[in-house]
Amino acid sequence: MNQPTSRGQKALDAYHREAQAELVDDRTLATQLWPFVRPHGTWLWISLVSIVLCTGLALVRPLIMLHAIDRGLAARDPQVFFEGGLLFALVAALEQVLQFGQTYAMQVLGARSMSDLRRHVFGFVGGLPLSYFDRQPVGRLVTRVTNDVDAIQELFSSGALSALGDMIRLVGVIVLMLRLDVQLSLVAFAAMPVVGLFMLWVRRRAREAFRSIRSETARMNANMNEQVNGVALIQAFGQEEAKALEFDGINAAYRDANLRSIKYDAIQDAAIDAISAISLASIVVALGWHGASFGTVVALTAYLGQFFEPISMLAQRYTLLQSAMSGAERVFGLLAVPERDAPPRDPSEASHGSSELELELDHVFFGYKPDFDVLHDIQLQVRPGERIALVGPTGSGKTTITALLLRLYEVRQGAVRIRGRDAISLGRDELRRSFAVVPQDVQLFSGTLAQNVAAGEAPDLERVRRVLEQMQILDVFIGRQGGLEAKVQPGGSNFSSGERQLIAFARALYRDAPILILDEATASVDSETEARMQRALEALLRGRTAIIVAHRLSTIRSVDRIVVLQKGHIIEQGAHEELMAHGGLYAALYQLQLARHAGAEEAPAAPRVGVAQA
How far apart are CA 44 and CA 217, in angstroms? Predict the structure, then answer.
């Protein structure tokens, strides 16, 4: 009994766990990041100039101490010490002012650049075909736009890009220490090879640790999103404890990935502090046989602190860099997905059909998986103003046909044409402006009623009112608090299922597209709402070409043509009376549905599409 459960758990874990991508060179990632930073180059230059000036002032401070101490002791003049201390304070104050400017400029640069990157990623994800989302947990994509971009922003907000100043300071410290005292400086620098080898050792391991953190973050978000969306089902089946255990395993993996990064970070800090102390002790020991002025010793000690301080900062910033680069790997890996909307094909290369047809599927083959077709040689022609119903058993390909018309998926073979033009010769945006869709499961978005009716356009309240009046449903919504600007909670939870369906009808009429797709857009509702839905449908269908996916056959008796599908094939088509007389699959399905309701208590008849025009 445990074996299937174990296999199922492994499959679920594989779905949530993201495969590690090939390690990408930091220089390549920086090149990919540059287009988002370049538009804000002014802030970058302000920050870079401030970094260089701050570094120069930091290098001057020990020299001020050296000259003040040696000259003051030699002259035994307190004025020399006062002047030296005052100059030191002024330099330090100016350094802090420049540091503020550098930090502010870098933070602004990061916020604006990452805002552009996040907007670009969000727009990119919105343009991906549905086939990509079929394979990706939603939480993983959310992680790309949020956590992974935030990790890159840490480069700016934490001052990680100040590493340039640290490198300049290191070079400056080495040059100045050698000019002050070559022998003592060489003693102090004896530990440098150790530091270099250690940094190389840590580098690869830290990067892998942070890649694991980013991967486990995406896995956790994916699992959390799935559990929150399915909380009603989880509670209904009493699976709270099982799902909690599942999340515990993911949480433990995330914790362990963080512990690995913490280990390398702690080892790195401790090792650098130890090497710094050994270097300082080496100078103290060397003073026993090598003489130097007191000012020189003070300056060398200050420079030695400045030498290991940027090394320590570089180590810390390198940790942040690895976190950011692992986030950048994942973000730009997403942006490299090849499944974007193909550019419109040159009209001269596209296949053409009759411009007298509104829609045409010409010998179309399609499958969601490469080796398995769900549609086979579909040939369907729809004239302007014609109402076509697609019927058939579950899985016969009805909804798939509507998805191909909208180019939510691309056909494997054959052509889809809109008014004689190959759909592939049209951009998806241009093509979809020809369609209005009323889905079976209505999705409302947070905002207002008017915004949901406008469906992404800036809502024109007067136009929204006219649409609702035309459909004779204005009184359903106008009495709500806020009227047309009534608040819509996430998912439309403060609206009934019937109200959500009416909003979907209004949304389609507001779009005013010539072709309408109805995916079983009538539901079992009370008789009053049902009558309103019927009137709304009549207004919506008037003067439009319609493709209607129907499961309840009583709703489509008066359409112009019924197309019957079975296992991805069109097996018969015609008017209701013709198909009933033919005695094929449609007649069998119709009689089966009648038989199911024969002994049931009489209920209101379902809305019949196109009754007013029958």
Answer: 30
